[in-house]
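Hi all, posting the design record for the shared folder.

TITLE: backbone redesign
STEP: 1 of 1
STRUCTURE INPUT:
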């Protein structure tokens, strides 16, 4: 069996903590002979602490499904936004008074305005931050538009002008845009194939819009927490409590460790 976990609001609390009971249950499932993986929208530097707590060395995915790691040093798959798409995304906003954006390349960020307070969280995650310039020539793992009331209008433009791209608009106004095929469902299918686990033996746990594709792909899907996105809830066959209430630990105890 392959157990696939999202991090935030699935096994990690709103306060950014991984409850010891959940970590213990996940590690016990692996010790019982099951495969365990993580698929997260976080970048590698941000996810590293939780990967270590769960003793996960691979395969796993970060930046949603953009980067699938075979192990801690070897990449299994890397799906990037070509530089031409990056420029198409951000060009209309280079001189915009409100809209800020960041282009994520591995653990480095290239941002419109490095002094914008919305990028302050970057410094706590040991990630470099550099000003985006017109000669930017890299493919990017994703482009992130900072929280703003204008993010919905940016998303409408992406749907209209760049319909081949993946995009997630969050409730706090952040908009993430990725290449086609950089979704968690595609990444989970690759991880399962790599491990030799058939689809019907894959169980996915998630709560967000970015988890929908992996919940739909998995043989069994579990929605987590009271704030689960409606599409994620619809894609799942069952729902459990939040990480604050030990939902994943309780489910594993009843269904895997019993």
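Okay, here is what came back for every position:
SEQUENCE:
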């Amino acid at each position: 069996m392959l157990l696939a976990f999202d991090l935030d609001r699935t096994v990690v609390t709103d306060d950014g903590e991984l409850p010891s009971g959940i970590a213990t249950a996940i590690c016990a499932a692996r010790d019982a002979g099951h495969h365990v993986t993580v698929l997260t929208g976080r970048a590698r530097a941000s996810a590293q602490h939780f990967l270590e707590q769960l003793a996960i060395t691979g395969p796993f995915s970060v930046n949603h499904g953009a980067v699938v790691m075979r192990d801690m040093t070897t990449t299994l798959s890397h799906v990037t936004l070509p530089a031409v798409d990056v420029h198409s995304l951000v060009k209309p906003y280079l001189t915009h008074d409100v809209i800020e954006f960041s282009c994520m390349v591995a653990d480095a960020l290239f941002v419109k305005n490095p002094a914008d307070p919305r990028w302050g969280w970057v410094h706590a995650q040991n990630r470099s931050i550099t000003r985006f310039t017109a000669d930017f020539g890299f493919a990017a793992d994703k482009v992130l538009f900072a929280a703003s009331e204008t993010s919905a209008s940016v998303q409408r433009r992406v749907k209209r002008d760049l319909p081949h791209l993946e995009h997630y608009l969050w409730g706090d106004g952040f908009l993430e845009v990725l290449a086609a095929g950089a979704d968690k469902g595609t990444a989970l299918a690759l991880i399962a194939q790599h491990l030799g686990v058939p689809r019907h033996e894959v169980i996915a746990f998630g709560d967000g819009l970015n988890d929908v594709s992996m919940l739909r792909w998995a043989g069994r899907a579990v929605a987590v927490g009271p704030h689960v996105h409606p599409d994620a809830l619809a894609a799942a066959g069952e729902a459990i409590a939040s990480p604050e209430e030990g939902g994943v630990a309780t489910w594993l105890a009843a269904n895997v460790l019993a």
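COMMENT: The chain has two domains: 2-78+182-255, 83-178.
Let me know if anyone wants the other runs.
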